[in-house]
TrEMBL record:
Subunit structure: Associates with the 60S ribosomal subunit.
Name assigned to this protein: Shwachman-Bodian-diamond syndrome protein
Source taxon at top rank: Eukaryota
Compartments in which it is found: Cytoplasm
InterPro entries: Ribosome_mat_SBDS_N_sf (IPR036786), Sdo1/SBDS-like (IPR039100), SDO1/SBDS_C (IPR046928), SDO1/SBDS_central (IPR018978), Sdo1/SBDS_central_sf (IPR037188), SDO1/SBDS_N (IPR019783)
Keyword Transport: no
PANTHER family per the UniProt record, alphabetical: RIBOSOME MATURATION PROTEIN SBDS
Pfam families tied to this protein: SBDS_C, SBDS_domain_II, SBDS_N
Residue ranges of domain Ribosome maturation protein SDO1/SBDS N-terminal in the record: 15-101
N-terminal signal peptide: none
Boundaries of every Ribosome maturation protein SDO1/SBDS C-terminal domain copy: 239-298
Gene Ontology terms: biological process: ribosome biogenesis
Residue ranges, annotated region (Disordered): 142-167
């Protein structure tokens, strides 16, 4: 049977990005607009129509060969076409040219460095490093990770080998950016690696805040509390709380003081910069504007010449 020529056969590969996914022995492709796949994966783009060139699944986009429905049903367990496309978008491998790949990696690398530079400070001065210094520190970690090293043999303090010693937890390794993960997620991991290895002295930045809120509101129960987003670990390890006060305190890394004066509750403490926005939104919503947040000190300071 002669192949039916689909409109996709007219697509110019210079204007299209392919996302490819292998399921069993079958390989499937979807045609997307450049730069939109990563935006979709990072939730920046939420309209799938802005991502897809053609809302269909192919076995070969350049030849216009549409994937047979029977193959799709078998590979994806009769999943609806929209869900299949979303699955390929999320889990498939983005196919780009070599020049585009380098350009995209360079863009992501700069974005990661900028994010990291805003999250770390010098422990002594509490001043941020320049993007250039953060970039060099990450390059150092990349070089170290790529060096072929033999596994270390556990020894006693006297230098004797131990027979059976549990391996120490592996430190996070930074091997450079990739094109298939959001920049923010990679930046959070880069922060962990820099703190673990300390190629330059670094610590997480902190903000000193003063929060004032009507005491009566603190006991109000809430159905679903937001989670702090200052760090990946905090977001994963913090459970939803039942009251307004508990939720506010879940954003705070360290409480310096808290007291009730009259009908007002006042708390001073430290939070990570990433938690400031969701904390502000939560207090504004739950207190209907009656609660306030005052920034007492920014641990992140940009100064000329730094």
């Amino acid at each position: 049977m002669p192949m039916i020529q689909q409109p996709s056969g007219q697509i110019k590969l210079t204007n299209v990005s392919l996302v490819r996914l292998k399921k069993g022995k079958k390989r499937y492709e979807i045609a997307c607009y450049k730069n939109k796949v990563l935006e979709w994966r990072s939730k920046v783009e939420t309209n799938i129509d802005n991502v897809l060139q053609i809302e269909n699944v192919f076995i070969n986009v350049s030849k216009g060969q549409v994937a047979p429905k029977a193959d799709l049903d078998k590979s994806f367990d009769k999943m609806p076409m929209k869900k299949i496309i979303e699955h390929i978008l999320e889990h498939g491998e983005l196919q780009v040219g070599e020049k585009e790949r380098h350009a995209e990696l360079d863009r992501i690398n700069h974005e990661v460095i900028d994010i990291v530079a805003g999250m770390l400070v010098d422990p002594k001065t509490k001043i941020v490093y320049t993007s250039g210094m953060i970039g060099k520190a990450l390059d150092t970690l990349t070089s170290q990770s790529h060096q072929a090293e033999k596994p270390e043999v556990a020894t006693t303090e006297a230098g004797e080998e131990k027979g059976k010693v549990p391996a120490a937890p592996a430190l996070p390794k930074w091997t450079g950016v990739t094109a298939n993960k959001p920049a923010k997620r990679q930046a959070l991991y880069a922060v962990k690696a820099l703190i673990a290895h300390q190629p330059i002295p670094v610590m997480r930045a902190r903000m000193s805040l003063k929060i004032t809120c009507p005491a009566a509101i603190l006991k109000h129960n809430i159905k679903s509390a937001p989670k702090p987003t200052g760090s990946e670990a905090a977001a994963e390890g913090t459970k939803s709380q039942s009251t307004v006060k508990d939720t506010i305190l879940s954003f705070v890394e360290r409480v310096e003081s808290q007291e009730v004066t009259g009908d007002l509750w006042t708390m001073q403490g430290f939070v990570e910069p990433g938690a400031y926005k969701p904390l502000t939104e939560f207090i504004g919503t739950k207190t209907k504007g009656a609660g306030t947040i005052e920034v007492l000190e920014m641990a992140i300071k940009h100064e000329d010449g730094e």
